[in-house]
Structures are given as structure tokens and as C-alpha cells.
Amino acid sequence: MTAHESVTWLFVPGNREDRFERAALSGADEVILDLEDAVAAGAKDAARRQVGSWLDGRGAGWVRVNAIGTAWHRDDLAAVVGRAGLRGVVVPKAEDPDSLVRLRERLPTGVGLVALVESAVGIDRVSAVAASGAADRLAFGSVDFALDIGADESDQAALLFARSCLVVASRAGSLPPPLDGVTASTTDDAEAREAAARARALGFGGKLCIHPRQVEPVAEGFRPTAAQLAWATRVLGEAGTDDTDPDVLSVDGQMVDRPVLARARAIVARAGVRE
Prior knowledge:
Elements: E1 8-13, H1 20-24, E2 30-34, H2 44-56, E3 61-64, H3 73-80, E4 86-91, H4 97-106, E5 112-117, H5 120-124, H6 126-131, E6 137-140, H7 142-149, H8 160-172, E7 179-180, H9 189-202, E8 206-209, H10 215-222, H11 226-239, E9 249-251, E10 254-256, H12 258-271
Parallel strand pairs: 1-2, 1-8, 2-3, 3-4, 4-5, 5-6, 7-8
Antiparallel strand pairs: 9-10
Helix pairs in contact: 2-3, 9-10, 11-12
């Protein structure tokens, strides 16, 4: 699975080297070693050393650096760029396409960049960020965004517009579907699963996690339900195996045309089922 296809992205504090291995073995598609919010100012240097050592040893992963323009950003990059295990950087407070392009130019070939959009300015400029060519994928910093606009992060309607902006900008910018923000509860599997399913329904392709326990519920939330898979299987069964799609079908009393057939194929593909 490539980073473009990865669904579960697990954060681990960059100053907790004792947790790196656990994160790597959690089943998450990608691990993000965090040098930003999870690490206090006084612990940044130690965190950089721990993350650098891990990436030069048997470890691999992404690193969330501190935001462009902060006092820590350049030192973060110096500590991780060129490390053998660096898969990419996650850039928080992503707002300025030009700054992201300049950062991208500093990264070695094959090292990715995820732009974490988490402010009103970021959402306002998200189409330009997606079209800049700097980011391989967008992600939503839902908690910080809610704080920035004075909204309740738990209110789904309050953040619906921002989430939709990321989905549309990603599609228009020829990027993979974006990553949704974290779920705060680390003990409620159902909440993580339902949040993932809602994100998938909006067009997201993955989700950020803050605890290994969230990985499987989030992955499950992005898989098609049994009912969705059964519907898709029936639709494709009615369509047959001809190379050309029929103009229109009727399945379960509903009209099925080419876009619906495409949706059925996408559901089957997400489930990992061969037609």
C-alpha cells in the first residue's frame, strides 16, 4: 500500500522513543513521529535526537515538523531530512502554497509531504495549496480548526464546510482523497469507527489516529459495510462481465446507470473483492 492509499495514520510523540516500536507494530498503515504539539518546547531537542536515531536504525515513518515560520521548523528539518527511514513530512498550519513549494524543493526525491490544514486561512487557500504541486496529500486538523473559528469540534455540522473544501480541493488538484482529523476519545471504539465511516461518506480516504487502539476501528469504518458490498455485488452481477456497460439497469427497483456502476466497482475494490 502506498502513502496515497494509506487509510490509518498513527501519531506517536517524538519524545517517547519507548512507544515507537509499539506504533510500528500497531497495524497502522503509516506512523507519524510528532515533533509538534505532542512535544513541549523544552523537549524538542531530545525528541529530534530520538526520532533521528529511530529513522537511522530499523525504524521508518513520517515526521510532523513544527510549522513553517516557527522557531523550531528549520531544526526539525535538519534533524530528519536525509534519514534512511524518513517516508515524508507532515506540515502543520499549512496555509501558504509558495512556502510549501519551497519546502518541497528541500526534500529528497521519494520523500512525501502531507499538508495539514487547520485554520480558516488554510481552508480559504486550500485549493491553491492542493494545486501547488507541493503536497502529496491533504489532511484536516479538525481540533485546531474548530479552535480557530470558535466552533465546537464535536458538532459535525460546524465543520462540514471545511471538510468538504478539503475533499473538493483534493479532487480538483488531482490529489488522493484527504485524511480526516483525529477522534479525541482513545477508549470508545464505536466513536472512532463511526467518525471514520462519516469521513468516508464525505469523500475522505483516511484518518489520523492518536492511539493504537483506534487503528482497527478506523480501518473498519473505511471498509464498505456488508449491506453496501451486497448491493454492489448485486449491481455488478446484473451488469454482467461485458466490456461495455449497459446504458441502464434496474436493481432493487432503482435505476442503475454508468456512474452507479462505477460506484459499485469502487465499493468492491475498497473491500478487496475481485469482481
